[in-house]
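Structure in, sequence out. Go:
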């Protein structure tokens, strides 16, 4: 068992108090809105979690059942959320944001971004980088050593530069270890992020990377699916399906007519999922030496129009 240095404990608590003040968490209300911090967190979880339930909110946020119930009743009364009975289990009700609830969430998110940007504008670029590196270090250490009792995976639709670095490293490691691809694949990965990125979704659990997928713009109403990956620790939990559902729903909402992707024939395990979401094999290239292996590239297309 690790021996705890009492001075470390005091420094930890001191930092907690300082950081709480920085974020304004001591204030009962957040972002100059009528919503408390807890209410805002509940809105965030409902927005970012597929088929959210009251039980999931309780477990994820560590809240009392009655407290969550009262907040949800208020949200329902104000037409911010609605419930839908589960087809698999009639005892469960899934919670979703209404259009009005989505508009409130977007305003809160925009206000949150503005507050962070206001704080950062007083910090020069070099110190901003040091700050985010320190945040990443804290998140990685605590996520690794203090795993939650229940692994709840959420999906967000925004990214920062550190996410790109992590996505590249996760992809490199997976294809090197699983398929034996060489370092030329790493160079290729870096090049792919020079494209016109439309959107990236990151799946995570308690700060841990769980998976990712993205879209790249192409002429007309066409987009390319890229960087699809589910971390080994989160496979067979529906994470991949959820990521693709977010992507497909986004494409339909934004009236894209076609999605395509390139893969290789050795990645056969992904085919059933692609087919489930309407992708069909449309092109097969001749086998060639690629990333240190003999590979045959395949193109898959999904028509949305």
């Amino acid at each position: 068992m690790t021996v705890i240095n009492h001075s470390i404990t005091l420094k930890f608590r001191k930092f907690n108090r300082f950081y709480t003040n920085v974020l304004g968490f001591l204030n009962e209300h957040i972002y100059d809105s009528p919503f408390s911090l807890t209410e805002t967190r509940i809105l965030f979880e409902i927005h970012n979690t597929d088929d959210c339930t009251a039980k999931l909110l309780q477990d994820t946020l560590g809240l009392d059942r009655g407290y969550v119930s009262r907040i949800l009743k208020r949200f329902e009364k104000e037409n911010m959320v609605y419930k839908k009975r589960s087809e698999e289990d009639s005892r469960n009700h899934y919670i979703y944001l209404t259009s009005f609830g989505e508009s409130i969430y977007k305003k809160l998110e925009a206000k949150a971004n503005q507050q962070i940007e206001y704080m950062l504008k007083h910090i020069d670029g070099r110190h901003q980088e040091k700050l985010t590196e320190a945040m990443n270090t804290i998140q990685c250490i605590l996520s690794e050593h203090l795993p939650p009792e229940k692994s709840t995976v959420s999906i967000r639709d925004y990214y920062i530069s550190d996410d790109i670095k992590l996505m590249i490293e996760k992809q490199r490691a997976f294809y090197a270890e699983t398929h034996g691809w060489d370092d030329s694949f790493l160079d290729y990965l870096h090049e792919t992020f020079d494209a016109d990125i439309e959107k990236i979704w990151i799946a995570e659990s308690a700060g841990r990377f769980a998976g990712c997928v993205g879209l790249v713009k192409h002429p007309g109403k066409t987009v390319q699916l890229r960087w699809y990956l589910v971390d080994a620790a989160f496979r067979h939990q529906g994470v991949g399906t959820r990521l693709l559902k977010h992507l497909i729903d986004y494409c339909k909402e934004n009236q894209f007519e076609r999605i395509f992707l390139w893969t290789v024939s050795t990645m056969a395990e992904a085919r059933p999922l692609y087919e489930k979401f309407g992708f069909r094999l449309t092109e097969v290239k001749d086998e060639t030496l690629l990333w240190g292996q003999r590979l045959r590239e395949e193109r898959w297309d999904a028509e949305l129009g």
